[in-house]
Amino acid sequence: MVAEFGHFALILALMASLVQASLPLYGAHRQDQSLMLLASFAAVVAFLLVSTSFGALAWAFVSDDFSVRLVAANSQTTKPIIYKISGVWANHEGSMLLWVMILTVFAALIALFGVNIPRPLKARTLAIQGMIASAFLAFLVFTSNPFLRLSPAPDEGSGMNPLLQDPGLAIHPPALYMGYVGFSVAFAFAVAALIEGKVDAAWARWVRPWVLLAWCFLTLGITLGSFWAYYILGWGGWWFWDPVENVSFMPWLVGTALLHSALVVERRHALVGWTILLAILTFSLSLIGTFVVRSGVLTSVHSFATDPARGLFILLIIFGATGGALLLYALRIPQVKKGVPFGIVSRESGLLLNNVFLVVAAATVFFGTFWPLFIDLMGKDKISVGVPYYNLTFVPLFIPILLTMVIGPFFKWKRDEVRTAVKQLNIPLLAGVLVILAVAGLNLGRHLFTAAGIGIAVWIILGSLWVFVKRTKLFQATLVQSLTILWQTPRAYFGLVMGHMGLGMVLLAITIVTTWQQENILSMRIGDQTKIGPYGIRLTNMENVQGPNYQAERGTFELSSGGQVFRVMTAERRFYPIQQSQTNQTAIRTNLISNTYIALGDADNNGTWTVRLYYHPMAPFLWIGGFIMALGGFISLSDRRFRVGVGQRAKVAVLPRNVVGAAS
Amino acid sequence: MKLRMATLLPVGLFAVMGVVLAVGLNRDPKVLPSTLLDKPLPAFDLPALETGLPNLRSAELQGKGLTLINVFGSWCVSCRYEHPLLLRVGKDTRFKLVGIDWKDAPEDAKQYLATYGNPYAQIGTDQVGRTAIDLGVSGAPETFAVDANGIVRLRVPGPLTPEIWDKQIEPLIKEAEKAS
Amino acid sequence: MIRALIAAVFLAVFSLAAFAVNPDEMLQDPAQEARAREISQNLRCLVCQNQSIDDSNASLAKDLRVIVRERITAGDTNEQVVDYVVKRYGNYVLLKPPFQADTALLWLLPFILMVVALGGAWTYLRQQPAPEEGDAVNDILDK
Q1: Which chain A positions have a beta carbon within 8 Å of C92's beta carbon?
Q2: Minimal CA separation from B157 to chain A, in Å
Q3: What whole-number distance in Å separates Cα of residue C67 and Cα of residue C83?
Q4: What does the alpha-carbon distance between residue B109 and residue B132 come to, in Å, rounded to a whole number?
Q5: Which of A259, A585, B72, C77 has the greatest count of CB atoms below 10 A from its CB?
Q6: What is the 3-state secondary structure of A270-320?
Q7: pTM summary value
Q8: Could you tell me if the ipTM is greater than 0.90?
Q9: For residues C52-66, average pLDDT
Q10: C64 shares contact with chain B (CB less than 8 Å)
Q11: What would the pLDDT profile of B61-76 be if each residue is shown by its tens digit?
């Protein structure tokens, strides 16, 4: 009964979205107030209906309703409740429903909280969102119905892929989808602006918070995904340039460019056409990502059950959305008012350069991901593109942005000189150079790339913090004065500093881990002692354990330093009888600047087990850096000034004169 | 409405990409082309499944018309899917059907064939897997068609179906008949 | 009784799959073993979704790992070992795509694109009218 109710709610939601997609557009064209208001109403109704539908599906999972085919295929009575819940989206249909629900959440938020958005713009934006929602609701209703029944209903389900029964993987899809779908807002605003024929600073002020919100979640989702792969897959890797990873990375790169570009539109009314294009591209890349994961077009670690018919449906949606938007762009953008000119050296041009670098980086990932498909279609050969390709292309092409990103905030708008800006960063620059020399020297001229990487990371971290140093007049005023200024600093500054600094930390981690990670693979008996990194490891016990829906072999290890045992670690290999598959539960001990990692391998029936030990110096900074970037973004979002509407501009406080690089 | 080249570029590129993706939907990215096509069959000499029977030697397969080499295993679920077809065509005298039992315990293979029937004129066992690798095998079942000159003419990954048989193998059989 | 049964299940299941590089596969000579690891990391596991034969548990991956080590011990250079595998499985098995006619663009396009994009940006910047003095206030949050 509940399932039918959920199904019905889904169909009603489709109808509401169709209304949302059509009438308000006409209303905006005719300046019909009530038709425009209909957009908000329909958006909220759609949200309520889709959430109800999602709730019905969640109920079916939690109550073990195996008469629903999806539940029977993906759940079991013995699963812990948290995984029954996350099981709702650990399959194609359920995750698509989550996707659509988040879409309706964003539309409803705009409808309810976008009080200062001019009504026609708001109506058009919601209409575009309604179109996207309609398309995906149709996809659900006609090809991917989560509520199909199974008769006769089995007593027990087939369970869920054991790899997915994990807290990290439970939150990773929702976070990612908040990112992917969040960029639909920028897309909708961009298309609405093209339809209206104008883009002004107010438009950018509306769009930026949504872009930032989506960006934060996407950063979080990618970081979580990488961390999950690290601890679950068993060989200490954290990024594989797998097609599905790539299709999350591309929107992130282009989304970062969008974030910076929108800033220029808001502050200086420049780079307008470029920003609109980026808004269209970011969401289009999200859509292509959705397509790739569900259509079977590329091989990848992720695998939803792939179905070419579904893939075709999504591809048609992409043709409509992206093709339509880009065509509209070509037709309308020449009319949109051109921006205020700026000098060859200026903050605007710096941000333009930022865009160039990020888009080229994204294009590189795109080529690597899709070239095998392209070659396959040409008939003769099949190639594959793996890590070595990206190391030789993406990495060198990403260096320019790493070198220049911290200089941007020190440029003045409109016109400036490189020397003036860089001079303010003299200490971070010096620090970076000294670190390169030091590392190279300590390694006697070896590991030069590593030295460069570490030096650049230090340059970035210090350069990011330098915004605060300059602003609070650290080392010039008293400490109390500096802290006072810091306390009063608008939160958006924290976003800037933490966003850049986080990336520097990620770079530091990658450079150090790649160069100095250690590995020790060996056969051990109970009682054997060995070393990894600076630590000693002793296998003290092996036992069989029983879990709620699995059986496991568990190894207990003692970690010692200088002969003193200070930690006991357990690693498991789990066997899930219903799915006939295994997972690895690695043991990781961290002190936040390094990881010691143990993965259990085969038993060889002679009383020995294969044990894989790794030492990963600086690895924690990889994910800590990612979280800091996301956190910085969230802090920025909480800045009141972000939520200030056009009408309330007068209330914005005037900043004191001791700002970054005051007039020289 | 003036149109500029630069602004049409995104749409144009997207159109190309869209076509690529659309066509790609019908391809299976996991199916690999064989490197052996139109090249000589790699040499192998495999012990027979039944003790006392002669080895399966690649050299002996030459000069005798078309040979079909079917790589299988008792553990392989898809093999069962094509087995009825193999039993039917195994009786055909226009070509020779031989099997390579891959990564299988001989007892299991014998049991499998006793239960489901034995379509092969000859069977070689490749427990280590070296011959399968020489043939570029990545899964079972796979079937190779080798002509009288010892040249590999066709490789079918996955189970044989009547459609594959009619469209790809029958023409080779007819060609071999004409040659002899 | 139950424990014995569980133990039997374990042995049966866990002994099926090899777990990536195993100690018993490794060569005695560390220099050769290092070469084997490096070559393996650049060869794709064909029955996995996106792993090298060095990382993978699959039995075909193990067979290939053993072959790589055999060829090294037999005296092949790194290139010859890789060619041996490519001869049997094609270019798909290489994680680093070869530089040939149909992949030349793959390797070159990123760099070409960077140059073109920078050139485009430069042209765009040059053709703007030059503005006057830069703004005194360059706080990112103020106009």
Answers
A1: 381-384
A2: 15
A3: 12
A4: 17
A5: B72
A6: CCHHHHHHHHHHHHHHHHHHHHHHHHCCCCCCCCCCCCHHHHHHHHHHHHH
A7: 0.90
A8: no
A9: 88
A10: yes
A11: 887 789 999 999 999 8
